[in-house]
Write a structure and sequence with these properties.
mainly beta, 6-stranded antiparallel β-sheet, 13 strands, 0% helix, 45% strand, disordered N terminus
Amino acid sequence: EDRSPLSSLSDSGLPPVQRVVTGHDAAGRAVFKSEDVTATRMIPSGDAAFLLVWTTASVPADNNDETDGRDRDAGLTLNQGSVIRIVDMLPGKESPMHRTNSIDYGIVLEGEIELELDDGAKRTIRQGGIIVQRGTNHLWRNTSDAVCRIAFILIEAPAYLHNGQPLDEHKPEG
């Protein structure tokens, strides 16, 4: 994966993402550990381009873990941990209906996206809008003619209990 500042445009056509990581030196002082610029890459379904920015293996996070969070194996969510990724949803595309055992913060950085819940209720979230997704079944739809870029932060959470029973996760394939 090319992480140089000269990376080409993302598969979505939007610019690559700059990532700056801080840490500590031997004296305990703050330092810049790394910096890269990386393009998002198309997922197999072809409806969006993703870029994994960082993960933690646990919640609360361990700031003594020197693993580059991008190098940790992560699916849609990370069991017992957290994930931040950039999602570029292409015009006219939508995700499958899905639910994860996590609390998700979605920050629309560019464009707009429609959020649909399992009962068919819909809301449009525009640039600068923030979604707090609390383990509900939902899908994303880009009804515009421009790419929508969203930063998603997903933190593990116990399954939502309905009448005392946990609702199952429903993760899309791929």
